[in-house]
Specification:
The protein is an alpha/beta fold. 61% of the residues lie in helices and 7% in strands. It has a five-stranded mixed β-sheet with strand order 1-2-3-4-5, sandwiched between helices. A two-stranded antiparallel sheet has the order 6-7.
Length: 425
Amino acid sequence: MSSFTEKDVQLLQLAYYFVSDCQYQFISTREAQDEIWLGNPKHPEYPIIRLSQTRLSTVFFDKTRILKIHQAIRNLFRRNCDLLDIHLSDEIVEDQEEQIDLVTISPQTVSDPQLTAVFPGIDHAVQPIQDPQQEYDRITQKLSELQRQRAHSTQKKSPLQPPKATMILMGICIAVYLLSLVFTFMFKNLGGSGEVSVAVAVLLGGYYKAFVVGANEYWRWLTSAFVHVDFLHLLMNMMALYNMGMLCEKLFGIRNYLIVLFGSILFGSAFVFLGSGNVVAMGISGGLYGLLAAFLVYGIQTRILFQPQLRTQFLLILMINLMISLMPGVSLAAHFGGFVGGLLISVVLTRNDSWAQLRKNTMVALCVAVVFIGLKTVEPKARELDAIYPGTDRMIVEMLRDLHLDFYGDHLSKKMVETYVGSSL
């Protein structure tokens, strides 16, 4: 005697339609009963579908559990969408539930005719069953074969697609580093190796408060992230960028990934400007700390950091980076600023409905922080230089003239003289 009912097999028929024709995947949920959850994060209208063989009335009593599962999948997909809840029934849908699009389907009818426009062929997906056991065996075999084909197709492709945006950023950093080697060799006669390296770093876009204040070169807040003149510094940052980029670019998408990275870099530079004297700074570590903060937000939002093993690994990474921040010659201000910026920006970019109020409050906090930084930046006290380095300035101007960029060198010379004459030093 068959242990499967007609509805059990029809549920598999419907699932097979979505998996084979609409590129959905099964989603395993521990709490699911008499139901199948499917997901396709690329579907424009219904990334998440629940198939059920229960009556419509059960949704009212089971809504809390259903929405809890739906929210968890939404967080994973980072999609703000309603749930398509399809029931194997010939009932008439009279009332809709909030956040849930209720539809009934049977071999004879689909309660919402518009669904056939979104999913062509769905009206023929469910068929009457003569022998449930035989039909069950047939569909499970077809599903297994489909899964094997997809697994084989995936294996043919590169299992780890390189993060495109991250690779481009790494390419820029490496290109700037190689250019720094060329310039350091070209201008080695202008001074000691350390002095020349510092001047070359500024020449290539490194942060230098004297030029930011004197010539209003605030673009250095961003370009300094791509400047590295020490191989070990470059190597460590590129390894960290690749690992974090591989993860964050996939989790957040390229647009949000770059927003968090660049925003964190700017926040880090702003903290250096307001908290440090006339220093030269370079490197992308402020942005890396922002990505670390963004992953923290993602881990809390999706609750993956509540898993003991992942939480321990994340805390270990955080402690290692904190120890690095306290080492001599490392800008704690840039790291802290990058972390704060990444934290604020990543919360604003979340789509979790339960975080709606937090997201609004964070948006206000982010705007206040930006306005505060802007106002503090123009204050005379913040623009004062605690020390001046005319030798470094002259070296940079000489490099520019040797590169036939006299107009820029003359511009810097004029601006720095005006700045230093007006300085109290």
